[in-house]
Amino acid sequence: LECRVDVLCRLPDGSFEHRSSTLAEPPDRDDAAVAFVVPTEAKVFNLSPSTEYRAELSVRFADLGSRSWQSSGLWVSFATPSVEDSTRAPQRQRSVAPTT
User: Fold this and answer.
1) How far does CA 89 lie from the centroid of its chain?
2) Based on the number of CB atoms within 10 Å of its own CB, is 76 exposed (0-12), middle (13-18) or buried (19 or more)?
3) How many CA atoms lie within 13 Å of 90's alpha carbon, on the beta-carbon side?
4) Which of 41, 42, 46, 66 is most buried (most C-beta within 10 Å)?
5) Which string of b and e fits 29-42 if b means at least 16 CB within 10 Å?
6) Are 77 and 14 in contact (CB under 8 A)?
């Protein structure tokens, strides 16, 4: 099974434009007893800050059929942080001891 993630950028008119595609990779496994490992990670670089995106999952069987990509029907919308938010130092949480 091969999995592809397509990333689309939301345009001002609400439509989507294809931005990038990447293959989802299976995790590194040293377990020889497991013959099939489902891909669980995909990395996409160079997304614009403060932008809305949609990621869609497509699949195909590597050794069966026509090898054409088929939509899985799974998708997720997300937004990238602004430049200011991405460069800001993470906030530390302070614990307060109760007074007696």
Assistant:
1) 24
2) exposed
3) 3
4) 42
5) eeeeeeeeeebeeb
6) no
- Reported as a single tens digit per residue, the pLDDT across 43-87 is 899 999 999 999 999 998 877 777 899 999 999 999 999 988 767
3-state secondary structure the chain: CEEEEEEEEECCCCCEEEEEEEEEECCCCCCCCCCCCCCCECCCCCCCCCCEEEEEEEEECCCCCCCCCEEEEEEEEEECCCHHHHHCCCCCCCCCCCCC
Q: What are φ and ψ of residue 17, in 5° steps? A: -125, 135
